[in-house]
Amino acid sequence: MATILYQDQFLPRDRGRVDMEDRGYQFGDGIYEAIRVYGGRLFLLDLHMKRLERSAGELRLQLPYSIGHLTDNLQTLIEKNKIDDGLIYFQITRGAAPRKHLFPEGAESVLTGSAINLPRRSAPGEAGIKVSLIDDIRWLRCDIKTLNLLGNVLAKQEAHEQGSEEAILHRGNTVTEGSSCNVFIVKEGRLVTHPADHFILNGITRLFVLGLAKKLSIPVEERLFSTEELFSADEVFITSTGAEVTPVVRIDNQLIAGGRPGAVARRLIDAFNEEVARIRTAALS
Ligand code: PMP
Known about the structure:
Helix content is about 30%, strand content about 30%. By secondary structure, the chain is an alpha+beta fold. A hairpin with a 2-residue loop joins strand 1 and strand 2 (about 10).
């Protein structure tokens, strides 16, 4: 049976229980991170931990452990679950207290975490995916990685019911991000993606891909882009911890790039794969 993390303890999955008055359960009052694991190692760990600290700060939520201690526990969780390529998910809530909106006094933050095996490219992956364009109805602090994901959940479900893998969200004429990913377009060899402001989550994979683009001398523009630019792009792709770089080949009923992954996405995927191969080799030595 899988091992989970509850506060500072490692427990069998069926012994993981939270209080019914936990504020994560009642208000979505908490934060989370999902970190990729390659070759048993936490990928881009420091960036994830920085984002976690930022999310906690924005919500004035106390982290229950130091980042060093938390990292040790996540690494142990990987080992206990024998994860090679996988995903670690953990969340921290403001704790359990009688249901009142105001921050409770004296409640202790509650941390839970789990790990799964996630082989690379199990999804449609490199062949490209179909997505749906859906209205972005979320709140105005999408930069905080909170447990409140109902706007994202509804969008993803709507996309799924339209036969799509993902929802690309728009506010009015502006494309923001996906329901659980960031969105990039390519126009005349230039990458364009929404700036990291309150309207999107600044994805760790987004940051990593921006770094790869720089190394490959691919010009980047972090600026607003419209739904018209999305549909007329030379290429579209999404990025996330789970999906890495995944080309989009159809939006609603329109083919993108003739329905095949584009050359810029290909270069970024190749560079991504090289980086993962390097990490796996280092993990073995
Ligand atoms: N935006 C949203 C709304 C997300 O949920 C995610 C993934 N959790 C991302 C972007 C991508 O972030 P990351 O690359 O850190 O997985």
